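Troubleshooting log. The previous run stalled partway through. Resubmitting the same two chains, unchanged.
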Amino acid sequence: MDEKRRRFEALALPHLDAATNLARWLARSSADADDIVQEAMLRAFRGFDTFRGSDAKPWLLAIVRNCFLSAASRTRRNAHMPLPDDDGSPQDAALVSGVPNPEQATIGADQSRKLDRVIAALPLEFREVLILRELEDLSYRDISIVTGAPLGTVMSRLSRARALAKEKWLTDVEGVRHGMQ
Amino acid sequence: MECSDALRVQAYFDGEADPATVPEIERHIESCAACTALREEMAALRSAIREQVSYHRADAALRGRLIQALDRESEGASGWRGLISRGSFRAGQFWSGAASGAVLTACAAAFAFFLILTPQSNPLVGEVMDAHLRSLMSDHLIDVASSDHHTVKPWFAGHADVSPPVADFPREGYRLTGGRADYLDGQRAAVVVYRHGAHIINVFAWAYHGETLPRITTRNGYHIVFWRSGNLIFCAVSDTALDELLGLTRLLEAMSVPDSRE
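Second attempt completed without errors. Output:
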């Protein structure tokens, strides 16, 4: 029996959703993100013999991030990197097309899209720490493993990311809410 | 105005502060208006992000592609999904693996009852897939609607050729929704319908006649899991994640060998 495959399925595969989520938030396009995830999972599998420890999540997410960065630099060489617009263009729609929650009222859905856009518009180094901390619930140490940034840098980036997100969120989302009342 | 202690307050908020310094930080927050506001803003942003921001999970298509890629990658080794796609089976290696692989043991155990063929080669896979899609498209999902297994199970007695075990699993999140009869493999198969979140799971059961079936296969984003218990073949189909589908099949496989009226 393939011991490596079994260990991989037990330790790494349960983090596939986290890998997908991070890739989507880094790449901001679902097609690119799927390619990144597949590439990352295969790299992780090939290198799984070198993995030591019990929590494969930060290790796997670091590979996802590296795959994203190499894909992004390839794209940059060939063309330009797509950036999200602020006006809800089709590009933006793809970004937030995840799984709409049918229970959400129109206003709720609208706010959700707005906050998605606020986070997506943050520069990469701020976007990633915020996603890793708030959506993946990673510790500072794990965020440091994923991003390769020292602990102090993780803390200051997180602080800056929160300030930027709050600022944009208050102007975009709260503005809408007050405007509708 | 930002306080010079803002990063310490953030670390405290994130549960990362040195426990020895926590009382001091708490005292500081109480006396510092900027840090009180900072903590509230961080909490508001966190709950907004966790409630409103999209969490992108891997869909069935991505999972399927990934499993195939891993199969190709571990070609030559005898991974359990590799066994399915290559149609080979080495019992000794299989059992040593099943014994040490706690996570996969449950999935793998039923394996021993099957001769493995290439998934696509069996027309029954297509039949089951068609029956599943028909049940979702028409209003013929349920003949007897009930979350009570005492209602659903007796219904099969008059309407299907087999009578599979029926149970509701509220704690695990698999809710019994009802039953129906479908014509499958030349017989009246019993179908138990479960709901898992927003997903429908059809569990087909029919009499075993020595057919060879894959353990797990994926068609058009739908996962199909087969297993055998006693003289019945079971097949669970859904568009839910494979792990979640296997959660239900494990529960059902753990139930006693069913009686069947052949």
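Takeaways: The radius of gyration of chain B is 25 Å. Strands of chain B lie at 144-145, 175-184, 187-196, 199-207, 216-219, 222-229, 232-238.
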